[in-house]
Amino acid sequence: MPAAEGPRWGRSLCIVLGVHALVVGGAAVWSSWSPPPAPPSPPQAVMLELAPLPSAPPVPPTDLAPGPLQQEQQPQPAQAAATPTATVAPLSPIQPADAALPPPAPERQEQRPASVETAEVLQSTAPPSVQAPSSTRYTARQSSAGATNPSQANWQALVLAHLERYKRYPRAAQRRRSEGVSLVEYAVDRSGGVQWARLARSSGNALLDGEALAAVQRASPLPSPPEEVQGDPVQITTPVEFFIR
Fold first, then answer.
1. Taking the C-alpha atoms of 23, 29, 31 and 37 in order, what is their torsion angle to the nearest 10 degrees?
2. Which single residue of 44, 47, 56, 207 could bond 170 by disulfide (Cβ 3.0 to 4.6 Å)?
3. Domain boundaries, the chain
């Protein structure tokens, strides 16, 4: 029995040692090998809501007082044509070499009266400057009228024609033969709608003033303002005329 158990213990010992070696080797391999690191998570998105910039309030139109008219002066005639005849002295005849030269002092005395006389002649012949205020006023009016572009002028004409179709002559004022012009100021949005209207100047007749305001309200919406006309709303001042024909 002891002789048969020796080989069994030897085989068992070899198996145990082999299993132990496999466990130790597997642990060493497992410790040396590590899984790849996980990829970093993407950064979180940040959403910003930008507030619109504060816009300046619309500036109401102001009537500017006309400035002082500039006066134009007619340009003075050029004096170059008269200067050569007055300042250039006639050439003296060539004297022979043996003749004595005239002293310099008398020549200076003769040139001084010539310059004084030339200045007097120029002063007496120069025309006085003439001012032309009428031409200046015409130039100022022409430049101010040219400031309105064609599209704006066309739109204003359309607005007046549109109001004329909705204007009615009050019967009581027509029987009394009342006439006048009411000045109405109103605001129009970009689509042509009338936001408000008020009487800027009375015609002197309450019936005519009331009809002028009512005509503006009835005519809404008006023709839309073009892109060249800035502002929202656009303030307009329109005369509404009432005359019996």
1. -140
2. 207
3. 151-242
